[in-house]
Protein backbone atom coordinates (compact mmCIF):
# COMPACT_ATOMS: atom_id res chain seq x y z
CA UNK A 1 0.00 0.00 0.00
CA UNK A 2 2.83 2.42 0.85
CA UNK A 3 4.43 1.71 -2.52
CA UNK A 4 1.12 2.53 -4.28
CA UNK A 5 0.71 5.80 -2.37
CA UNK A 6 4.29 6.79 -3.10
CA UNK A 7 3.82 6.04 -6.82
CA UNK A 8 0.56 8.02 -6.90
CA UNK A 9 2.14 10.99 -5.10
CA UNK A 10 5.11 10.93 -7.48
CA UNK A 11 2.83 10.79 -10.53
CA UNK A 12 0.78 13.71 -9.20
CA UNK A 13 3.85 15.85 -8.55
CA UNK A 14 5.23 15.12 -12.04
CA UNK A 15 1.87 15.98 -13.62
CA UNK A 16 1.70 19.26 -11.74
CA UNK A 17 5.20 20.22 -12.90
CA UNK A 18 4.63 19.16 -16.50
CA UNK A 19 5.44 21.67 -19.20
CA UNK A 20 2.47 23.08 -21.03
CA UNK A 21 0.86 24.33 -17.85
CA UNK A 22 1.42 28.01 -18.43
CA UNK A 23 2.17 30.47 -15.68
CA UNK A 24 0.65 33.92 -15.55
CA UNK A 25 1.07 35.83 -18.82
CA UNK A 26 2.89 39.17 -18.67
CA UNK A 27 0.45 41.94 -19.62
CA UNK A 28 1.52 45.58 -19.59
CA UNK A 29 -0.57 48.74 -19.24
CA UNK A 30 -2.16 48.23 -22.66
CA UNK A 31 -4.11 45.29 -21.22
CA UNK A 32 -2.82 42.99 -23.97
CA UNK A 33 -0.27 40.19 -24.03
CA UNK A 34 2.97 41.21 -25.77
CA UNK A 35 1.85 44.85 -25.50
CA UNK A 36 -0.73 44.26 -28.23
CA UNK A 37 1.74 43.17 -30.90
CA UNK A 38 0.84 40.34 -33.29
CA UNK A 39 2.81 37.26 -32.21
CA UNK A 40 2.03 35.40 -35.45
CA UNK A 41 3.60 38.20 -37.49
CA UNK A 42 7.03 37.56 -35.95
CA UNK A 43 7.23 34.38 -38.05
CA UNK A 44 7.16 36.41 -41.27
CA UNK A 45 9.58 39.17 -40.20
CA UNK A 46 13.15 39.14 -41.44
CA UNK A 47 15.45 38.08 -38.59
CA UNK A 48 18.54 40.24 -38.29
CA UNK A 49 21.98 38.83 -37.45
CA UNK A 50 23.03 38.59 -33.82
CA UNK A 51 24.46 41.93 -32.74
CA UNK A 52 22.05 44.02 -34.83
CA UNK A 53 18.55 45.25 -33.90
CA UNK A 54 15.64 43.12 -35.01
CA UNK A 55 12.89 44.26 -37.35
CA UNK A 56 10.15 46.10 -35.46
CA UNK A 57 7.17 44.10 -34.26
CA UNK A 58 3.77 44.38 -35.99
CA UNK A 59 1.00 46.03 -33.95
CA UNK A 60 -2.25 44.15 -33.58
CA UNK A 61 -5.74 45.62 -33.88
CA UNK A 62 -8.15 45.99 -30.99
CA UNK A 63 -10.88 44.62 -33.23
CA UNK A 64 -9.03 41.33 -33.89
CA UNK A 65 -8.29 39.50 -30.64
CA UNK A 66 -8.21 36.09 -29.00
CA UNK A 67 -8.00 34.86 -25.42
CA UNK A 68 -5.22 32.56 -24.28
CA UNK A 69 -3.42 31.95 -20.98
CA UNK A 70 -5.67 34.40 -19.16
CA UNK A 71 -4.78 37.29 -21.49
CA UNK A 72 -6.10 39.06 -24.55
CA UNK A 73 -3.90 38.86 -27.65
CA UNK A 74 -4.22 41.28 -30.58
CA UNK A 75 -3.55 40.50 -34.25
CA UNK A 76 -2.96 42.47 -37.44
CA UNK A 77 -5.29 40.22 -39.45
CA UNK A 78 -8.02 37.66 -38.94
CA UNK A 79 -5.79 35.14 -40.73
CA UNK A 80 -3.10 35.62 -38.06
CA UNK A 81 -5.66 35.28 -35.26
CA UNK A 82 -6.93 32.04 -36.80
CA UNK A 83 -3.37 30.66 -37.07
CA UNK A 84 -2.79 31.56 -33.43
CA UNK A 85 -5.97 29.81 -32.32
CA UNK A 86 -4.87 26.62 -34.09
CA UNK A 87 -1.73 26.39 -31.90
CA UNK A 88 -1.33 29.29 -29.44
CA UNK A 89 1.61 27.71 -27.59
CA UNK A 90 3.60 27.69 -30.84
CA UNK A 91 3.17 31.43 -31.40
CA UNK A 92 3.22 32.72 -27.82
CA UNK A 93 6.61 33.88 -26.56
CA UNK A 94 8.49 31.62 -24.21
CA UNK A 95 8.26 32.19 -20.46
CA UNK A 96 4.80 33.77 -20.69
CA UNK A 97 6.19 36.88 -22.33
CA UNK A 98 8.85 37.52 -19.70
CA UNK A 99 12.43 38.41 -20.59
CA UNK A 100 14.35 35.26 -21.57
CA UNK A 101 17.61 36.59 -20.13
CA UNK A 102 15.82 37.49 -16.88
CA UNK A 103 14.48 33.95 -16.61
CA UNK A 104 18.01 32.62 -17.24
CA UNK A 105 19.04 34.65 -14.18
CA UNK A 106 16.14 33.27 -12.11
CA UNK A 107 13.53 36.03 -12.22
CA UNK A 108 10.50 37.36 -14.04
CA UNK A 109 10.84 40.76 -15.68
CA UNK A 110 8.86 42.06 -18.67
CA UNK A 111 9.69 41.20 -22.25
CA UNK A 112 9.85 44.01 -24.81
CA UNK A 113 8.03 43.02 -28.04
CA UNK A 114 10.60 44.88 -30.15
CA UNK A 115 13.53 42.96 -28.64
CA UNK A 116 12.83 39.52 -29.99
CA UNK A 117 14.53 36.54 -31.56
CA UNK A 118 13.25 33.22 -32.84
CA UNK A 119 15.58 30.38 -31.86
CA UNK A 120 14.84 26.75 -32.68
CA UNK A 121 11.36 27.84 -33.82
CA UNK A 122 10.51 29.49 -30.47
CA UNK A 123 9.91 33.19 -29.83
CA UNK A 124 12.00 34.83 -27.08
CA UNK A 125 11.69 38.41 -25.80
CA UNK A 126 14.16 40.48 -23.78
CA UNK A 127 13.71 43.59 -21.65
CA UNK A 128 16.25 46.18 -22.90
CA UNK A 129 18.80 46.56 -25.68
CA UNK A 130 21.59 46.23 -23.08
CA UNK A 131 20.13 42.90 -21.94
CA UNK A 132 19.93 41.77 -25.57
CA UNK A 133 23.73 42.20 -25.69
CA UNK A 134 24.20 39.91 -22.70
CA UNK A 135 21.65 37.42 -24.10
CA UNK A 136 23.39 37.29 -27.47
CA UNK A 137 26.78 36.50 -25.92
CA UNK A 138 25.57 32.92 -25.39
CA UNK A 139 21.99 32.37 -26.56
CA UNK A 140 22.06 28.55 -26.26
CA UNK A 141 23.62 28.74 -22.79
CA UNK A 142 21.04 31.28 -21.59
CA UNK A 143 18.20 29.16 -22.97
CA UNK A 144 19.57 26.15 -21.10
CA UNK A 145 19.73 28.17 -17.87
CA UNK A 146 16.24 29.60 -18.44
CA UNK A 147 14.78 26.15 -19.08
CA UNK A 148 16.28 24.97 -15.80
CA UNK A 149 14.97 27.99 -13.88
CA UNK A 150 11.51 28.20 -15.42
CA UNK A 151 9.86 25.27 -13.59
CA UNK A 152 10.82 26.90 -10.26
CA UNK A 153 9.63 30.42 -11.10
CA UNK A 154 6.74 29.70 -13.48
CA UNK A 155 4.16 29.51 -10.66
CA UNK A 156 5.21 32.98 -9.40
CA UNK A 157 2.95 35.88 -10.31
CA UNK A 158 3.67 37.67 -13.58
CA UNK A 159 5.94 40.68 -13.40
CA UNK A 160 4.13 43.90 -12.59
CA UNK A 161 6.98 46.09 -13.82
CA UNK A 162 6.81 48.31 -16.88
CA UNK A 163 9.16 47.76 -19.78
CA UNK A 164 12.05 50.26 -19.54
CA UNK A 165 12.66 52.59 -22.49
CA UNK A 166 9.47 51.35 -24.18
CA UNK A 167 6.40 53.37 -24.91
CA UNK A 168 3.65 50.83 -25.23
CA UNK A 169 0.69 51.84 -27.29
CA UNK A 170 -2.66 50.12 -27.32
CA UNK A 171 -3.31 48.09 -30.46
CA UNK A 172 -4.48 50.02 -33.52
CA UNK A 173 -8.15 50.88 -33.47
CA UNK A 174 -8.45 51.06 -29.67
Describe this entry's structure for a reader.
The protein is of the alpha+beta class and 174 residues long. The chain has one domain (22-153). It is 33% helix and 15% strand. The chain contains six helices and four strands; from the N terminus they run αββαααββαα. The strands form two sheets. The protein has a two-stranded antiparallel sheet. Strands 3-4 form a two-stranded antiparallel ribbon. The protein is globular, with a radius of gyration of 17 Å. The N and C termini lie far apart (60 Å).
Question: What would the keywords be for this entry?
Answer:
about 170 residues; alpha+beta; two-stranded antiparallel sheet; 6 helices; about 15% strand; globular; disordered N terminus
Number of strands: 4
- Which oligomeric state applies? single chain
Radius of gyration: 17 Å
List low-pLDDT spans. Answer: 1-21
Q: What is the count of helical runs?
A: 6
How does the helix and strand content classify structurally?
alpha+beta
Biggest sheet record:
2 strands, antiparallel
Amino acid sequence: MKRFLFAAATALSVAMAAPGIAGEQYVDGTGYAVSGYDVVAYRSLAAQPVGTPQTGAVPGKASITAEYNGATWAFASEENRDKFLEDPAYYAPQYDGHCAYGVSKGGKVPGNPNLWRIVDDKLYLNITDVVVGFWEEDIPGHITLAEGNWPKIEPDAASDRVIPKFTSAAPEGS
